[in-house]
Amino acid sequence: MRRSGLHRQHGKQGAGGGGVGAKGIYAKLTIAVVVLLICTLSLLFSATIGGNRGSLEPSEINAEELWESAKSSGWRPSSAPRSDWPSPPRETNGYLRVRCNGGLNQQRSAICNAVLAARIMNATLVLPELDANSFWHDESGFQGIYDVEHFIQTLKYDVQIVESIPEIQKNGKTKKIKGYQLRPPRDAPIEWYTTVALKKMQEHGAIYLTPFSHRLAEEIDNPEYQRLRCRVNYHALRFKPNIMQLSESIVDKLRAQGHFMSIHLRFEMDMLAFAGCIDIFNPEEQSILKKYRKENFAEKRLVYKERRAIGKCPLTPKEVGLILHAMGFDNSTRIYLAAGELFGGERFMKHFRDLFPRLENHSSVDSSEELVTNTQGLLGSAVDYMVCLLSDIFMPTYDGPSNFANNLLGHRLYYGFRTTIRPDRKALAPIFIDRENGRTEGFKEAVRHVMLKTNFGGPHKRVSPESFYTNSWPECFCQVSPKNPADKCPPDNVLEVLDSRLENKVTSDPETLAEKNSTSRTEG
After folding, report:
1. Which Pfam families does the record match to this protein (predicted)?
2. Among 411, 485, 389, CA closest to 79
């Protein structure tokens, strides 16, 4: 009723005293605008004083909910072919040998690429060589880490695989085929394999690609090729039974006391030297890092304060503890640490250990001789990988250039959208710098505000520089009732169809029929 009365009053002013009424209204509006502007500037000024953290709306992270897997939004993992996928022909263009360099997880990606390269070239893949000796001082090789029979059997619909190049008989003499050595370009396109590499293979019968790390482009506009990579990574590459049993034993012991989180604490000499983050160490330690960097990485001017301000430094153990504490995890949280030798010693762990005393690693949970004697080798890395894969929550502290973290993020996504905590180092850097400068007010709220904007392991679009091995969605996932037909899950009997095609190809092959007939006559 009051509003209609005001309208009537405005009408009278318009008829008789409109000039005076208008001036009054304009004056009131002007005052209101000024007050609003003052309030806005005040809020902005307060935010700036608080460390340029922006507006911090009430933020809530329920730590208890993070122990459960992320929401799938109707997606489920699926790397089976969804279109015509012929089984590999009996006759191939030759043999493909590769030498996979780097650590266990860099090698893992290289193996996936090797299988795809063999498929692209219609080549017989020789079991990949792992250049373990130069990196790990460990001579286990592929056969010492992975289940070879399972690897070959799982990929029988995709490529032919042999353990070694067979010898050939020529002019009554036994001869070994020597692979023609090639160095593939980094992130080589498919065309390089179907032209340069294939030509040399056809000329020499075999090629040897070395080194073979990041030698095939990740982003390929062919979903079936990408799904083959997933079949290799998440199905064919299975660790040997002793490694699986050891890993499951550790997980069972950890889980006997409830949920547990795994953290890849990448605070090690190689990564710190690579990142150029050395100012927090004493002069002797800085000298060690500088020497390591000079011997192993290209010369580059790196300023610690600049690197840290843009999130290019690995999180320190203290920063990791502060993030988890701000998110609501308390000192009862059980944490498994996957890490090599932490640089700088125990003084960097003290604050983290004070906040989270229930820390474990594979040696503390299982002190078996097998692990003790190979804790820094391929076996120790493989066990850490499996425990992190099976943990309720996984947190990488430096996932940018870390193959271990990147592969695990992708594997956990494929394994059922298992929760991951991925700190946004760039967004967190000014908050930590403010705290170190004495501006601690609102610290926890600021951390939570940043972490709420991160993805906790659910399906999300892959955006550069995120790797395909970190996020294979949507190529390696499907929906039962999709909006896009390309996302429809393949039929449940897809393996039976592939088996039938493979069997038909074998039985229709002239050489196979001849062998069967010969065997039948001999038996008769």
Report:
1. O-FucT
2. 411
